[in-house]
Amino acid sequence: MLRVYWYQPAWRYSVGDCLQELRAGDPVIEVLGADNPRLVTAVREGKPNSKERKEPDYIELVFHDDQARRRSCCGPETPWQAQPGRKPRHKQRRGIVRLKTFYQVRWLLVGSLLSGIAVAQQQLRAVVPAQMSASTNRFYSPGVDAGDYVYISGQGLRRLDRNSMSNFSVQVRQALDNVKAIVEAAGLTMDHIVYTQVYLEDISKYREMNAAFAEYFGKTPPARAVLGVARLPESPVQISAVAVRNLAGRRAIYPPNYRSDDAASPGILTHDRLFVSSMTGGDPVSGDVPRDPGAQVDLALDRLQAVVKAAGLEFSHMVFVNPYLTSEIPVRVMNERYARRFEFGNTPARATIEVSSLPGGAHIEYTGVAVVDLRQREAIRPKNMPPSPTASPCVFAGDTLYCSAKSGFIPGPHGGVYASTTPHQLRQTMRNLLDNLEEAEMSFDQVVATNLYLDDMSDLPSFDAVYSQYFGPVPPTRTTIQQIAPAERKADKDDHYPDLEQVSLIAVRGPRSPKPARRGAVLPHGVDQSHSRFGLTLCINESNSVHP
Predict the structure, then answer these.
(1) How far apart are alpha carbons 338 and 326 in whole angstroms?
(2) Which residues are paired to 237 by β-bridges?
(3) CA 442 → CA 44, 80, 94, 522, distances in Å?
(4) How far is C-alpha 89 from the geometric centre of its chain's CA atoms?
(5) What long-range pairs does 411-417 form, CB within 8 A, spacing at least 24?
(6) Do the bridges between strand 447-454 and strand 477-481 make them parallel or antiparallel, or are there none, so unpaired?
(7) Residue 194, C-beta contacts closer than 8 angstroms, at least 6 positions apart
(8) Nearest-angstrom CA–CA distance, 236 and 200
């Protein structure tokens, strides 16, 4: 007989939710092998930690995680009840599953894992144009069709003759051609694009970039954000995009007295969302930039708000904001001015990124997304995170979850970044992101787009080696940049290291998507198990399920 105990008091799951915990798959097989003594005590033939490999007649599983205060479909248990040979108190009511052989467990795990991933991603489809080989993009998808919207990875130069393409205008057109190929592979046109982000290694090339843009879009160009960065992975320019499938309701939003020669609309309104172009802290008519950092912040926020109000919305409708700023703007000043505009504890998700330069000599700009129906907006905050005056961890816009950028910061008392390498920081970053996804009852399988900010682009190979472990058969789109010069990688007096990477993401839950396990069933095997509290629940709950 094999008894595996994982103690977790609290609420009961329904049968359907129990089955979703089987998505842990391979990690559960490790648990059954008693390879994780910090979370599981395996008792074989009444002998704790026995090395015997006898085939059990049946298996009983009880789960509990006192430290994480997890939920359980197997009813409340207390640690003293989980003694070897002692049966759980509510066995008859719970109907603990008895499986005749370990091999039945293994096949059930494999089948449930595959079916769980298939259901979770049934609404997602990778978009790969014929001229782009899927094998060359194994770390990300060129595009992801998420139903209402299609997300396009950052595009640079990908033709075989890219080394001969020294003309910047040609480079921009090639990047836009790549965007176009992905959009058309999804069955759409360039008119369906509602938002673009343009990254330039040389901000002085802004006018050339803008001229090329005008050739690709009609009278209603998409909203657009432009920023100068230190380094890009493939070329001096990179362009990412979002396209809407249904053109009904798509229209440009112009605030009163708006004047600009840009080949971009100040805002694009769709049936459910508003995409806002980057609004700088400079005067749009004269081009003057105030000398006072606070005045620049206020001007940029005023311009952002003008677009939102022109769409008939308020700042309370915002679900995500990107503040891009140079070193000339103190973050403290930006945060103070920003916090005045939003409701405490109900702010948009946010990715605050320091960049090398911005158009027009500005030192700050804001871009973002708002939801049309305020009833579709919901802020998500894990219980271990206090409310913030500047950013919510994640915010829903309908079925789309926009999540703030996360780093390898360890939260809690004495929190900080203690890892000294990019791969080690990334593991903590993904743990932080997973906390947010789980609070929204989602998983990494539902992520459709990521933005990666690296301290040094040369770290990308080691970053990818870890990053690729977290996603399913449809990896999200991706945009990768090194926004400023690398930091000095030394610990401070508190043994804190600088951020070597940050990741923000967008995830989409389908109307029929299952609720995944509350703790990350998709964590890779390489993650320290002390941070990966996940497991298998096999039970039949004969009473009504209780959910928070």
Answers:
(1) 16
(2) 200
(3) 35, 33, 26, 11
(4) 41
(5) 411/384, 411/385, 412/384, 416/494, 416/495, 416/496, 417/496, 417/497, 417/498, 417/499
(6) parallel
(7) 222, 223, 242, 243, 244, 250, 268, 270, 273, 275
(8) 6
**Above pLDDT 90, what percent of the chain?**
62
Residues 443, 520: contact at Cβ < 8 Å? Answer: yes
Residue 125 corresponds to which tokens in the numbers above?
């489809």
Instruction: Report the candidate in 324, 370, 372, 331 with the shortest Cα–Cα distance to residue 348.
Output: 370
Is residue 418 classed exposed, middle or buried when 0-12, 13-18 and 19+ CB atoms within 10 A define those classes? Answer: middle
Q: How many CA atoms lie within 13 A of 466 on its CB side?
A: 20
Whole-angstrom distance, CA of residue 32 vs CA of residue 53? 11
CA distance 444 to 506: 10
List strands edge to edge, sheet with 394-397: 377-380, 394-397, 400-406, 501-508, 447-454, 477-481
- Per-residue model confidence as pLDDT tens digits over 471-494: 988 999 999 999 999 999 999 999
CA–CA gap between residue 314 and residue 374 (Å, rounded): 10
pLDDT of residue 31: 36
CA distance 237 to 215: 17
- Type of residue numbered 201: E
Query: Do 440 and 138 meet the contact criterion of CB atoms below 8 Å apart?
Result: no
DSSP state of 87: P
pTM, to two decimals: 0.74
Confidence (pLDDT) at 517:
38
* pLDDT of res. 259: 87
What angle is formed at CA 436 by the lines to CA 398 and CA 224, rounded to 5 degrees? 55
Rounded to whole angstroms, the Cα distance separating 357 from 137 reads 29
The secondary structure of 332-353, three-state, reads: HHHHHHHHCCCCCCCCCEECCE
Q: Residue 419 in contact with residue 425, Cβ under 8 Å?
A: yes
Q: What pLDDT, on a 0 to 100 scale, did the predictor assign at position 287?
A: 81
Q: Which of 181, 187, 180, 256 is nearest to 222 (CA)?
A: 180
Residue showing tokens 């002085």: 204
Has residue 141 got a pLDDT over 80? yes
CB atoms near residue 38 (< 10 Å): 10
Query: Is the distance from CB of 16 to CB of 71 less than 8 angstroms?
Result: no
Contacts of 206 (CB under 8 A, 6+ apart): 200, 226, 359
Alpha helices by DSSP H, listed for 289-404, are 293-310, 331-339
Residue 508 to residue 510: CA distance in whole angstroms: 6
